[in-house]
Amino acid sequence: MIEEQLARGDLANTNELFAACLLAGKIMVESGSEMYRVEDTMRHIASHGGVLEAQIFTTTTVITMGTIQGANSQLIQIQSRTLDLEKVARVNAASRAYTADALDLNHLIQRLHQIDQHAPTFPPYLQFLSAGVVSATLMILFSGEYDWFDLPMAFLIGMLGFMVSYYIDRLIKIKFISEFTAALVIGALAVWSVGLGVGHSMNNIIIGAVMPLVPGVPLTNALRDLLAGHLMSGMSRGVEALLSAGAIGTGIALVIHFIQ
């Protein structure tokens, strides 16, 4: 089909198809999806639209798509990266609807723009409360002592640390600085709580409170990309996850160093 389009000079449908594929890939990469899943979704959309041998190159900063048959290729830049599995699931559902002929190409593009701009998310206060619950429960799990006395402080400090990270990230858009600052706040509050006698173990509180900041999903995706053969994206995501872990560890280490 692409050869017939190229022969008669009608590339409008191909350009729209590429735009849909690239938009779907962009949303998925920005939302934390694995690269092989991104390429698989893009290939299904392209194949259903008539491009059977789409050439796709995905990284964490740009996606390029073209064909062997013609000199038509397009790319799209990745502006930011976060974790939003709701968007990934909705893009996959939209692509399946398109391949099942429940959506045409124009409606698919409209659906993707709607997902990108208006996908539902949890309000900040629920995210903060969830961070506190994660901190408190994982503090009990990782401490090994089942010291329930520190559970309220782990909940409160974990919630405040995640809140600091959330608002600083929205303000300056530099993830490592927000994580470093949040780690400083968590360490200082843990020391303060133990000093006032409202906490027993500074280590247990810190272990629980930093859990919402730990880049577990990016590190997992980095390993999955490496195992799937996406060496460039796997290494870049791995480095990013290690930098995040280093920022968190440095913030906690500075607090402990100055205390001692």
Account of the 3D structure:
This protein is mainly alpha-helical. It is 70% helix and 6% strand. It has helices at residues 2-8, 12-30, 35-48, 85-99, 105-118, 124-143, 151-172, 175-196, 202-209, 216-227, 231-259; strands at residues 54-58, 62-67, 73-77. The chain starts with a helix and ends with a helix.
Question: How do the helices and strands line up, and which of them pair or pack?
Answer:
Elements: H1 2-8, H2 12-30, H3 35-48, E1 54-58, E2 62-67, E3 73-77, H4 85-99, H5 105-118, H6 124-143, H7 151-172, H8 175-196, H9 202-209, H10 216-227, H11 231-259
Antiparallel strand pairs: 1-2, 2-3
Helix pairs in contact: 2-3, 2-5, 3-4, 4-5, 6-7, 6-9, 7-8, 7-9, 8-9, 8-11, 10-11
Count up the helices: 11
Largest sheet: 3 strands, antiparallel
Low-confidence stretches: 1-10
Sheet-strand content, in percent, reads 5-15%
Q: Based on Cα principal axes, name the global outline.
A: elongated
**Element pattern in H and E:** HHHEEEHHHHHHHH
Q: Specify the structural class.
A: mainly alpha
> Level of helix content?
over 70%
Mean pLDDT: 87
Using only C-alpha atoms, the radius of gyration works out to 23 Å
Number of strands: 3
Number of domains: 2
N-to-C CA distance: 71 Å
Strand order of the largest sheet: 1-2-3
Subcellular location: Cell membrane
GO cellular component, one term: plasma membrane
Pfam families: ThrE (PF06738)
Membrane topology: Multi-pass membrane protein
